[in-house]
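Reply to dn_fold:

You asked what the input looked like. This is it:
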Amino acid sequence: MRIEPEPAGIFADWMAEVQARTERALERILPCAQVAPQRLHAAMRYAVLGAGKRVRPLLVHAAGALTGAAAASLDRAACAVELIHAYSLVHDDLPCMDDDTLRRGRPTCHVEFDLATALLAGDALQSAAFQTLCEGPEHIEPALRLDLVRLLAQAAGSRGMAGGQAIDLASVGSALSVEELEFMHIHKTGALIRASVKMGARLGAGLEAGAGAALDRYARCAGLLFQVVDDLLDCESNTATLGKTAGKDRENDKPTYVTVLGTARARELSRELLDEALEAADELGPGGERLIDLARFIVERKY
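and this is what came back:
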């Protein structure tokens, strides 16, 4: 039986609470801008704080709610994945990558500071993510910390996000098949989203094999869903709403779900992925409400 989503107000309150606690935790974790080297630390804080939907931290907490994980432990994992995400955005915006000047409604890090500082800020944010997992609540067993580090490293590396970005750059001007496009985004976007879900669940009680498989299926669908919606928004929305340059993928001649499938089929695919994600979350029982709400949030978002 399909689990009904919670009333919108309850989910909105939960989401705001998780976003706020993630922001506070990131503020504590990031070096103070007054500590040397000041400019680097200021750039790191600029890239992370005060903006962003925090979708990955929300997924960490939603999966953690499913397994009864402690909030303090989830905060650490949520910050770690968000630091990796922030570093990837800083580097993606550089002239050697997507060459963009607007991110989250304000100048990109290399525009606000300079190219070298932005590059170093991204490097330092990546290091901070793994340091974050190694510190924090003492009740997290060393073996579990090691597993979390492994999950995040795999998601961020050459067989995850960085590898997907490499494929993306190599695909500019090419005509990809749907299968090739999916392979790229399973790595570029999906890997970190799947890791967010896995890390959150690992911090609580264990799941039975069937539930673990359902959770991973949910995470895979959510990752692809996020990208399909991103491609639709890039095509159909405007810069003011998105907080980043609209139409950038088309301008850069990048293959997207819209260019490969067309707008109508891409929108249909988003509905199919949402249904599959909801079916997977339904198998998790009453603890999957947050995951259901988040899947709907991903597809209904405006930026």
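The chain has 16 helices and two strands.
Hope that clears it up.
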